[in-house]
Predict the 3D structure of the following.
Amino acid sequence: MAVSQMIGAKIHRREDPRLVSGHGHYVDDFNQPGQVYASFIRSPYAHAKITSIDLTEATAAKGVVAVYTAKDFQGQIAGTHPTVAGFAAEKKTVPERFPIVSGEVTYQGEIVAVIVADSSYGADDAANLVNVEYEVLPAVMDLDEALKADSPKAHIDLADNVGWDITMVPWEATEAGFSSAEVVVKERIHQQRLAPTSMETRGILADYDTFDKKLTIWMSSQNPHFIRLFVGGAMGLPESSVRVISPDVGGGFGSKISPYPEDYLVPATSRLLGRPVKWSESRTESLQNVTHGRGQIFDVEVAAKRDGTLLGMRVTQFLDLGAYHGTFGAFQACACVMAGGAYKWPMISARTVGVLTNRVPTDPYRGAGRPEATHLCERMMDRLALEIGMDPAALRRKNFIQASEFPFSQNFGLVIDSGDYEKSLAKAMDIVGYDALRKRQADLRKEGRYLGIGLSTWIELCGFGPSGLAAATAGFALVESAQVKIHPTGSVAVYTGTHSHGQGHETTFAQIVADTLGVPYDQVQIRHGDTNEGPGFGFGTYGSRSLAVGGMAVRMASLKVVDKAKKLAAHMLEAAEEDVVFDQGKFHVKGSPENGKAMGEVAFASFGGGLPEGMEQGLEAIAYFDPPNLVWPFGAHIAVLEVDPDTGSVKFEQYVAVDDCGNVINPMIVEGQLHGGIVQGLAQALFEDVAYDPESGQLRTGTMLDYTIPTANEIPILTLGSTVTPTPVNELGVKGIGEAGTIAASGAVINAITDALSPLGIKHVDMPASPDRLWKQIQEAKAKSSSSANGGGAQA
Amino acid sequence: MKRKVALTVNGSRREDEVEPRLLLVHYLRDVAGLTGTHIGCDTSQCGACTVLVDGKAVKSCTLFAVQAQDANVQTIEGLADGDKLHPLQQAFWDNHGLQCGYCTPGFIMAGVYLLAENPNPSDDEIRKGLEGNLCRCTGYVNIIKSVKDAAQKMGATKSAGTPVTAGGD
């Protein structure tokens, strides 16, 4: 076995020299000779009927090459938008979706025409000359209203707006718990819509070769193989004739997983014209048309004893699907399955309702269902702690699944692999100085100051997926592939089916390969994002799966190479294979380390003659890794902040995060993932909100001036700690960490704000907890308490 | 109707015929072929397109190319000295100050200007100095650390402030 030198080391990323010097290659940096530029004409209305489209002016405009509407794509693009089972397999209504519409538009931004011109400025100019007449229809925007029988429908031909309504565990199952409860707490918890907002918007360059009938697509994608499958299929092209290249990608956060209308229309336009066609998404197009995350309402009830014993939970999820089902949108129903968090419950009842509205579809965004589950569970733990007068940390500790109880199965049938929740909480409380903080909080309260301490003891399911589970939810196994090739002179090329868009796989996967093959790190090159390379299929990067599934595939393919090399080395050493050991990157006969054969020597020999009988030339292998289970990282986050009651503003004092992702390949990258994840989570808690006009369905947050992701000026100092609980699910002992920060942070921040304001009788705060929202809530609470002090009723 | 524009980009003089409405960022990317300068928004919020114009950090989407007549423009490609990275580039590498890398050229150019104006900024001054640039990956923690590190390595004499982050074990 090779010595472990690289795994666990803080290796600076090999991606960085090109990226810090302007030599990265993002999709918009690619061009093809003779290319033309597409611009899309989109519905300005949330819901309307198209009554006419007049292309006369646009067609005549200077530089315009073509103008297309839906009818031009008939016979070019077949089938409806793909939708997977997710955690809501039995869907009631799945409206058909085509990349371009001719009759009814159902969200603002839906495509009605395509302009192609010889310059990008010219295409945008001509887009303004397309005259589309609409008959405006009522927009379905509010989830409660949408479910009423007399509501307008998101599509005129729908019977109702219910995309799905699935009871996963019936209410009767928790009847015993609720009927024997000493206390029941209830809350309605909103998860506002969020825009993923990768800094690089989407973009596509498609080149259809009319002679060879081959299509090349350059695009910004988290999973180019799926795009090849979907787009090739819709265009009637075999996968072998379609090449998708996803080069350096400027962030994804889940928004570059599913196929988009433009992914079909740009290649189809290239085929219609026989010319390369390029499209670059504007930021406004992005905020309007890229799938949003969250967009949910949860009605939650928790039954308990006064001593903090949990007796049951009932949770109903209302999920704003948008006008269509997102390809992986039903994955978000996993919020129900994960609602129990890190705690032991006798039983949880859950129902998920997917509601069709006139907004852009929702789909996975960093965490996808797990941030929502953590937020609701952690909020309810604090809500219960407040109700029974118990310290929130003590309530959590009382109900944690204990380290000795893993593998642990909850009532939804999933098996949590490993954990030590007490350990991470204890460490976080120690770092933050929890007991002293509580004393200081009590003192400050006497001065009328509002210090809050918020806990979030999160868990996550990630690393999709075991083929059986994943095939049921995604329709596809979601295993991962890798190919490892050693060239005659010893350099190693590795292809992974995952895709790196900031995660640093070129570095971390090379660390794994170097250790496994016993070759110098610099000899290993990691490649990804080009469907013409590597094994038959790659499954892409999302759901914190790359290392735990893709990294393992890389490890397994490397081990296959070692196996073959060992046989050949034994032959070269004229020894029996069982007498040969692999150590420090060399094969040698037991007891004779001085006569070793390095991997490079074996590789060179593998291309020569005189191989052992039956052995083929070459030293390379393909592996597919199918994990036996999901992996379950966890941790404890504590936010400490003060709320100014006069302005409603929030000032952080500390943010402590102790996380456990099992063994770590590169600690620098793990910390970086946590920093970014935490800031996205606290941005949901405090700043971000995709706002639509509730009547017209017009997007109000269509620029970065209105949709406010945080700047460097708004973030607290983050203090990170870790514990290490290796997973038994894979040989590397690794779990995912890409989404952890986002999953944990919103609960910690909102719990801290609620804790701060609890002396005012405030029990829950919705997101984003903006100064105006908090100020209003504080004013209302103060008015209520003064009226009750003047003889009004006691507070509920 | 096209107009002539003449300017210096990364030390090389060039003259081109451009549409008067062509944004400087599109000129740099599409005419000069310098694709290291990125576009992240339409409204001058994100700072991904930040370059130096006569030494000052400018969002190159806020200028027309013709407004850069006779200017000296420096982009990310012009920052390194041959194979030797500029201290800020090196500091971003050393401190994991980037993930997807898309916003990075803008941050580095904004950082060059920040350090030219204030060679030894405090953490707060770095935060304020970079608030015109948006990053979605790093949570800014390691960006602040990178700028601080570069400031120190570039020979600042004032004492260092408190670390941006502590912990990890």
